[in-house]
């Protein structure tokens, strides 16, 4: 108990500060990713041109095989050359801006793929019944397809959230802050207490957000599908 008290006296303030930074990065990145991927998934599920669907999915899928650290580094490189191209420092190569771009890029695929799959897997007979009742395409989407697809959509969001928390530990390397600061300081000095101060809150944060999103998923899912 004395060791635990000493640990929190030494690192408590730093842990709270870095956890707040980490949570902010995660929440903002996920909000942007959801705002992009869910509407895009809905559009692709209703798109009749297969080439468009394949092209968009293929483009987003290109990011996933790239290691997360390389994604962060490539974002910095792209920002650097875009600044040179425009002849002005419009984009910051260090800090939150490149970190958010990398996090959003990494979070897109599970949400997009699950939204698309969830809507496409809705029984066509159910859609036809709704159409026969006089519902418009918009009403069918929001009253039938999206509620039935909600478990798929939320599963994608939960996967992306856990991934984003993990990748967010790496963006401290580009000056974005977060719990990665503690982890990398501990690794550079071979201090287990610093590594624990960063890694344990990150793991707890992932578990807490996944549980919270699971509760939200159950609330949003129609009672008959729970």
Q: Overview of this structure, please?
A:
The chain is built from 8 helices and no strands. It is mainly alpha-helical. Helix 1 packs across helix 8 (192-220), helix 3 packs across helix 4 (96-120) and helix 7 packs antiparallel against helix 8 (192-220). The relative contact order is 0.15.
Key traits:
single chain, 8 helices, MetI-like fold, 226 residues
Tell me briefly what this model is.
The protein is mainly α and 226 residues long.
Which helices and strands, and how do they pair?
Blueprint: H1 2-46, H2 50-61, H3 68-86, H4 96-120, H5 124-132, H6 137-168, H7 180-189, H8 192-220
Helix pairs in contact: 1-4, 1-6, 1-8, 3-4, 4-6, 5-6, 6-8, 7-8
Helix content: over 70%
Within the CATH hierarchy, at the fold level, what is the topology?
Answer: MetI-like fold
Total domain count = 1
Give the number of DSSP strands. Answer: 0
CATH C-level category: Mainly Alpha
Give the rounded overall mean pLDDT: 88
Radius of gyration, taken over Cα atoms and rounded to an integer in Å? 21 Å
Strand content: under 5%
State the CATH superfamily name: MetI-like
Tell me the CATH architecture.
Orthogonal Bundle
Shape: flat
Low-confidence stretches: none
**Total of DSSP H or I helical runs spanning 4+ residues:** 8
Structural class: mainly alpha
């Amino acid at each position: 108990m004395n060791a635990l008290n000493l640990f929190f006296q030494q690192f408590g303030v730093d842990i709270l500060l870095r956890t707040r930074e980490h949570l902010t990065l995660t929440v903002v990145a996920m909000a942007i990713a959801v705002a992009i991927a869910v509407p895009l998934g809905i559009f692709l599920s209703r798109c009749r041109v297969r080439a468009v669907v394949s092209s968009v999915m293929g483009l987003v899928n290109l990011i996933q095989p790239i290691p997360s650290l390389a994604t962060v580094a490539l974002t910095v490189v792209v920002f650097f050359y875009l600044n040179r191209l425009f002849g002005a420092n419009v984009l910051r190569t260090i800090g939150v801006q490149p970190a958010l771009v990398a996090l959003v890029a990494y979070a897109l695929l599970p949400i997009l793929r699950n939204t698309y799959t969830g809507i496409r897997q809705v029984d066509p007979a159910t859609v036809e019944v709704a159409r026969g009742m006089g519902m418009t395409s918009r009403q069918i989407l929001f009253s039938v397809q999206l509620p039935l697809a909600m478990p798929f959509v939320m599963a994608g969001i939960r996967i992306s959230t856990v991934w984003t928390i993990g990748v967010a530990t790496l963006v401290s390397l580009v000056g974005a802050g977060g719990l990665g600061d503690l982890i990398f300081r501990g690794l550079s000095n071979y201090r287990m207490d610093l590594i624990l101060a960063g890694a344990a809150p990150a793991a707890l944060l992932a578990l807490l957000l996944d549980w919270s999103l699971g509760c939200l998923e159950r609330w949003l899912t129609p009672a008959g599908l729970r």
